[in-house]
């Protein structure tokens, strides 16, 4: 069968079960890999088309009033589908509508083989950023003029299918053979296509040079590792002259090169710290070009001394930027070779041995796992790194990935034939021989708190986004436990009848059922789950009771409660510890049972290494939960640790999360990092408060006698590019006028949007206020003049929301938490930044409470020592979203009058570049903004 009919429907709604109808049908016919025919027609739905469908498709009630009814076209449609595949982008939707209409008109439903281009795109293009039709076709350079119209969508889907088929036929034989084993679980009927591709492939040997094959897997040929030793004789001053000065190599890389004196100043400061064996705090304001400024001395020092330097970032976004943009620029700028490598934790890398093993075992696979396996098979023919962050897999596929990651293989046997193909081993080797290793704060801290066993040895380190180091270190030195995760882990092990790990093991090794009582195991699992429920329900009930007594515990969506022997009265604490001891008792019984199984299987010849590794991993995971329970409830608390509980106030699951963190990491960092390393450079755009590094020095445990501090000013002319507007007539939120404040904020947003034609980023400090503002704005916006996007309200990731914001001319983006930093919206896309409230941490947050208590006990002022500095640093991050280049121009509107009325307000305004500050009525400020623009 080589006829393919591609279909796309426009409908009055999402579900034929709700009596939604087809209003337009587009069909494209493919034969012999060529589009031979196109058909489309309007259909009369015999009902009104909703306005939002008309807005989306431009199909009006007038367009369909004289169109035929589906019944009149049904026979012709069925005729077109004879002896063909049915193809659609999301087959269940189109097939569901089509078959409902056919049955309603007295015909039989279609039973054609189907191909879903969403599913096939996910498998064959695992690195694509999105699988929506408009975005996957854009990714593959397939364009059309009339999206959301049936024929146009059907036509691009047809072209997409041809591209997918071409990609499928280019895959190596081993990959196709493995996909064929998985095919019965796909939504698409690919068996015939896979057979054809394998038949063609078995006669062609062109792929042999491109792929390595081993044990039934095909993967991309890995690059050869060579290392050249370079001897640098150039002095550092000459090196920088050659790059930064007139006619230097940097100028040659850019058409419009703007020399930034601060950039060279920062490079010199980094190198001075390296040479003198000192640490450095460098605040580099927006526009400095700090990444390049620290990379240049790092490369010089690493190559000159033949010693690697680590560069750590907080976000994967900056890691990607360094690797994809900054490192290639440095390669073009310096005249000697060097190598940079990315290194992440073991859990990021695929284990080929574990994956090959799982491919032969389909017993535990559901659809998502099957799809994940298919995606990984194709990705293996493309990736050099084996880093899962390169691709998108189904959400539940990440649980499967844990089974096939390098973390699951424990220690790879160097005598194993798989050793030479290990992605993690290659990443480690690449890092070992690299001059620069790029990693993240999480792995840096994990390495530091585990005797430096994860990263290759180093003496010098650069920490970018350094204002996050304290929180990351505290998180990785602490622990987290919750009842949802505990239940999930036990469910993944399963009872004897579940299609999970335990069932798989007893099914594979008959001797287990002869020697062990599976009923005993099932009883143990059931009892352990019951004990988890009892403990966490008790904790939930206790905190709910406390909440009624103490309203400060209340938080929108989540309650937070500090707990310890001192916080909870003695009789309640005794009950809790008894329940914890009982739960640990059952956990130990589970471990004992599995350990005996492992010992028993060890005596059999057919005990597979991968099964043993998974069994040991399960035992270790259970032991981790015991360790966490003991630390949280049974051991004496560390003096400088805070323990707290969080629980959702909404949702059917009584999710309870337990946390423990140190209240200060200054001693830890001082002893484990700064005392042990020759030179640590900490840089960020926000490290000072009122031009002082005092706060960050104390929080991180840096000692002044071994410390260089430097502020690098922005090259931008902020006083000409920014106006800071502060209204003096906003309601005072202090007196409970929350609704009035939200109304005033929403009115100001719309008034300013008129001036700036949208292009506004509004930063909130609470999701609740954001949601209420979004709802109110929707009510008072009388037309669809502005595209309103709300984080947590509008679906999509931060990156997706930002792209949507930039795609529409008149957009207003409401953001919180993650939008305060790391979001780069240069140029005319952003003209107005509104800060709704100064970003103080909630005073009732358990970590803040505990830190405040410690400061009070030491005779210090928690507000001045902790709350204010944190708020100023976050405020500076938010302020930095507006001006990203020398040509940007805009206004910052701060609704919170405390910035001018409170004594501490100057700390905020003195911590940002000097800009004109206007404090007036809202109406007057809007008029002044209009005049300024």
UniProtKB/TrEMBL annotation:
Q: Which organism is it from?
A: Oceanobacillus indicireducens
Q: Which PROSITE patterns match?
A: HELICASE_ATP_BIND_1 (PS51192), HELICASE_ATP_BIND_2 (PS51193)
Nuclease as a keyword of this entry, yes or no, is yes
Q: Which reaction does it catalyse?
A: ATP + H2O = ADP + phosphate + H(+)
**A single MF term (Gene Ontology):** DNA binding
Q: Name one Pfam family in it.
A: RNase_T
Cofactor(s) needed by this chain: [4Fe-4S] cluster
InterPro entries, sorted: ATP-dep_Helicase_C, DEAD/DEAH_box_helicase_dom, DinG, DinG/Rad3-like, DnaQ, Helic_SF1/SF2_ATP-bd_DinG/Rad3, Helicase_ATP-bd, P-loop_NTPase
What's in the keyword line of the UniProt record?
ATP-binding, Exonuclease, Helicase, Hydrolase, Nuclease, Nucleotide-binding
Q: Which residues bind ATP?
A: 284-291
The molecule here is called 3'-5' exonuclease DinG
Primary role? 3'-5' exonuclease.
Task: Note the superkingdom of the native organism.
Answer: Bacteria
């Amino acid at each position: 069968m080589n006829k393919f009919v591609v279909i796309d429907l426009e409908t009055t709604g999402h579900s034929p079960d709700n009596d939604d109808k087809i209003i337009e049908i587009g069909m494209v016919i493919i034969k012999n890999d060529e589009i031979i025919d196109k058909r489309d027609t309007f259909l009369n739905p015999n009902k009104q088309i909703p306005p939002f469908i008309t807005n989306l498709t431009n199909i009006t009630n007038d367009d369909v009033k004289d169109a035929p009814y589906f019944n009149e076209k049904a026979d012709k449609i069925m005729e077109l589908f004879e002896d063909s595949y049915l193809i659609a982008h999301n087959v269940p939707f189109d097939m569901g509508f089509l078959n409902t209409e056919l049955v309603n008109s007295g015909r039989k439903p279609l039973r054609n083989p189907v191909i879903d281009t969403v599913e096939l795109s996910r498998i064959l293009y695992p690195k694509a950023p999105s699988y929506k039709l408009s975005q996957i076709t854009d990714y593959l350079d397939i364009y059309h003029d009339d999206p959301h119209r049936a024929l146009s969508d059907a036509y691009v889907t047809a072209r997409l299918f041809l591209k997918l088929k071409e990609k499928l036929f280019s895959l190596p034989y081993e990959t196709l053979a493995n996909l064929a084993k998985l095919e019965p679980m796909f939504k698409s009927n690919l068996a015939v296509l896979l057979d054809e591709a394998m038949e063609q492939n078995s006669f062609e040997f062109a792929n042999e040079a491109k792929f390595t094959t081993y044990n039934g897997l095909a993967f991309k040929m890995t690059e050869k590792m060579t290392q050249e030793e370079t001897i640098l004789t150039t002095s550092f001053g000459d090196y920088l002259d050659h790059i930064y000065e007139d006619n230097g190599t940097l100028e040659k890389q850019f058409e419009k090169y703007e020399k930034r004196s601060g950039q060279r100043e920062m490079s010199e400061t980094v190198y001075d710290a390296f040479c003198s064996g000192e640490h450095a705090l460098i605040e580099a304001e927006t526009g400095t070009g700090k990444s390049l400024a620290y990379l240049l001395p790092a490369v010089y020092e690493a190559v000159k001394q033949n010693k690697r330097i680590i560069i750590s970032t907080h976000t994967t976004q900056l890691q990607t930027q360094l690797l994809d943009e900054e490192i290639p620029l440095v390669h073009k700028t310096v005249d000697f070779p060097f190598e940079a490598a990315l290194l992440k934790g073991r859990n990021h890398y695929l284990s080929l041995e574990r994956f090959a093993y799982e491919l032969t075992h389909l017993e535990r696979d559901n659809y998502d796992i099957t799809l994940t396996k298919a995606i990984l098979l194709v990705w293996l023919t493309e990736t050099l790194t084996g880093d899962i962050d390169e691709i998108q897999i189904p959400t539940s596929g990440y649980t499967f990935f844990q089974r096939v990651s390098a973390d699951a293989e424990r220690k790879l046997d160097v005598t194993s034939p798989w050793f030479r193909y290990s992605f993690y081993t290659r990443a480690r080797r690449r890092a070992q021989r690299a001059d620069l290793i790029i990693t993240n704060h999480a792995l840096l801290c994990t390495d530091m708190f585990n005797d430096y066993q994860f990263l290759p040895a180093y003496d010098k380190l650069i920490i970018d986004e350094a204002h996050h180091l304290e929180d990351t270190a505290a998180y990785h030195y602490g622990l987290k436990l919750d009842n949802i995760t505990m239940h999930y882990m036990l469910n993944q092990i399963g009872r004897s009848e579940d299609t999970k790990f335990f069932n798989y093991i007893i099914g594979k090794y008959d001797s287990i059922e002869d020697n062990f009582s599976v009923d005993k195991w099932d009883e143990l699992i059931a009892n352990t789950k019951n004990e988890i429920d009892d403990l966490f329900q008790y904790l939930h009930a206790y905190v709910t009771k406390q909440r009624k007594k103490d309203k400060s515990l209340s938080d929108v969506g989540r309650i937070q409660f500090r707990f310890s022997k001192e916080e909870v009265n003695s009789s309640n604490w005794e009950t809790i510890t008894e329940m914890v001891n009982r739960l640990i008792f059952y956990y130990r019984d589970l471990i004992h049972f599995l350990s005996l199984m492992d010992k028993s299987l060890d005596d059999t010849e057919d005990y597979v290494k991968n099964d043993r590794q998974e069994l040991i991993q399960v035992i270790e995971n259970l032991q981790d939960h015991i360790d966490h329970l003991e630390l949280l409830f049974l051991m004496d608390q560390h003096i400088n640790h805070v323990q707290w509980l969080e629980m959702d106030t909404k949702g059917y699951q009584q999710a309870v999360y337990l946390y423990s963190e140190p209240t200060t990491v200054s001693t830890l960092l001082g002893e484990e990092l700064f005392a042990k390393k020759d030179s640590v450079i900490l840089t960020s755009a926000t490290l000072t408060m009122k031009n002082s590094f005092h706060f960050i020095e104390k929080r991180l445990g840096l000692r002044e006698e071994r410390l260089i501090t430097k502020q690098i000013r922005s090259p931008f002319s902020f006083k000409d590019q920014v106006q800071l507007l502060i209204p003096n007539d906003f309601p005072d939120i202090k007196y409970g006028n929350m609704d009035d404040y939200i109304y005033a904020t929403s009115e100001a947003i719309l008034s300013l949007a008129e001036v700036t034609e949208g292009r506004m980023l509004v930063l909130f400090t609470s999701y609740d206020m954001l949601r209420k503002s979004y709802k109110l704005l929707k009510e008072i916006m009388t037309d669809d003049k502005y595209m309103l996007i709300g984080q947590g309200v509008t679906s999509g990731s931060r990156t997706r929301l930002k792209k949507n914001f930039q795609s529409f001319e008149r957009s207003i983006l409401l953001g919180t938490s993650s939008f305060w930093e790391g979001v780069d919206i240069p140029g005319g896309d952003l003209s107005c930044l509104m800060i709704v409230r100064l970003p103080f941490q909630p005073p009732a947050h358990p970590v803040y409470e505990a830190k405040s208590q410690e400061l009070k006990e030491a005779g210090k002022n928690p507000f001045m020592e902790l709350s204010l500095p944190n708020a100023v640093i976050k405020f500076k991050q938010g302020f930095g979203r507006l001006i990203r280049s020398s040509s940007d121009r805009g206004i910052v509107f701060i609704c919170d009058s405390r910035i001018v009325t409170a004594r501490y307000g100057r700390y905020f305004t003195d911590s940002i570049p000097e800009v004109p500050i206007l404090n007036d009525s809202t109406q007057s400020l809007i008029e002044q903004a209009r005049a300024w623009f």
